[in-house]
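Researcher: Next entry in the queue.
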Amino acid sequence: MLLVLWDVDGTLVRTAGHGRYAFEEAFEAVVGRIPEPVDYAGRTDKQIALTMLAGEDEHLGRVLEELEGALELRKEAMRAEGYAYPGVAEVLEALHGRADVIQSLLTGNIKANAIVKVSAFGLEPWLDFDVGAYGSDPHEERSDLVAVARRRAAEKYSEPTGAVLVGDTPLDVRAARGAGARAVAVATGFSDPEALRAASPDAYLEDFSDTAAAVGAITAST
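Model: Structure for this entry, 222 residues:
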């Protein structure tokens, strides 16, 4: 079995800034001020929150709790202003039809918010959230989450699984490398395409417009 682990932001969907706005609102609700600007790309919610908090974890739990509610309130606006990337639904559906593939998420989003984001655009039917790994899971590095997802998939499906990460940043590629998984990079997000290629993913896609090519790149090891 192949465990396909999808990044969310910049890979499956674009949320029109509502993820960032929810984070800022959560931080302000807990700390009482607007956070300094931080780099979100490829980082987990825990890492983002700690950066906002200048490394102090006293308010970390409360910020992440507030974040869940803040994004849920923005779901309808996110659906209206954002979108799933072209071809994503077709690739998810094609992979779902294969008996040798399990699909889930490996994302820096806390689990509740990851589900809000993909369900806002109707992508949830093809994903098994139970075997994913999220920013709400214990981790120090993003690569730690790969082992979490593999363990959950093995427990649920009772089969060993290879793993491939599909993401839009060099940090996604690095996470796959650090966990012994394959990396498929897609240039749909905010990363510079040359930087993405320079990260040396196992496969590189400009986008998901060619369903067969995307499925082939993702399942190349099977």
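Model: Residues 105 and 141 are 16 Å apart (CA to CA).
Researcher: Noted, moving on.
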